[in-house]
Amino acid sequence: MTNEETVSATEGIGKAGTIVKEGVVSSLKGINEIEAEIVSLVRNTVSNTLRASGAVANEGVNITKDVVKGAIIATEEVGTGLILSTKSVAKGVVMGVSDVGGDVVTVAGQTVKGAVKGAAEVGADVALVARRAVDGVIEATKEIGGNVEEVAGVAVSGAIEAAGAIGNTAVKAVKDMLVGVVEGIKDVASAALPKAKTSIYEEKASSKEAGEVSEATTRARGKRGE
Question: Which of 6, 24, 49, 207 would suit a FRET pair with 90, their CA atoms being 20 to 30 Å apart?
Answer without folding.
Answer: 24
